[in-house]
Amino acid sequence: MHGLINRAIELFLRDTYGQEAWDEIARRADLAPPEFEAMLDYPDALTVDVLAQAAQLLDKPEAEILEDIGTYLVSHPTAEALRRLLRFSGADFTDFLHSLDDLPARARLAVPQLKLPPVALTDHGQQMFSVTVGRREAAGFAFGHVLLGLLRAMADDYGALVLLEHKGCRDGVETIDVQLLEAAFATGRSFVLGAAG
């Protein structure tokens, strides 16, 4: 697993639950030194173990932790660069949804070694969508839950009112149902795509 993914997990756990909780999770997972380097690769089994130890220590389902990580990646002040990169995907939440197919390729442009699972959007009409996420071979955890949290945070960022539901995994593919109830439900966070002219 790429160190950027592991580092995001570490930062989320430290920022949300504190250094002491992170130290205990790292100890239980035999992570030495007790921190991830962003540009190194790690065995997938280590990432899986860190998530399992976090779920056990925090007494939370792993899926919930993964969803919270997705939200953290967009909404935490330390992740402003990623939020801005994602907002360049479109002027509203619908544009953002239609750009999801390109997400793994855009990630590889920024970090060539970073391999995200394939993501595909199906537009069913009447503001109903489904997003499928291919499970990365042997990764051992559901990227779809991370994407679910990211979608929830991006909807808030755009001011859209959405219903999101993770429908589970079938034949190695996770599905998220998206119902866009109102595109401009609230005032979104300030963002300008281009320079004012």
UniProtKB/TrEMBL annotation:
User: Which residue intervals define the domain Heme NO-binding in the entry?
Assistant: 2-132
GO CC annotations, alphabetized:
guanylate cyclase complex, soluble
Identify a single GO molecular function assigned to this protein.
Answer: guanylate cyclase activity
Q: Which Pfam families does the protein's record reference?
A: HNOB
Gene Ontology BP, a term: cGMP-mediated signaling
Family annotation (PANTHER family): GUANYLATE CYCLASE SOLUBLE SUBUNIT BETA-2 (PTHR45655), SOLUBLE GUANYLATE CYCLASE GCY-32-RELATED (PTHR45655:SF13)
Q: Protein name, please?
A: Heme NO-binding protein
Species for this entry: Roseovarius atlanticus
What does the record give as the organism's lineage?
Bacteria, Pseudomonadati, Pseudomonadota, Alphaproteobacteria, Rhodobacterales
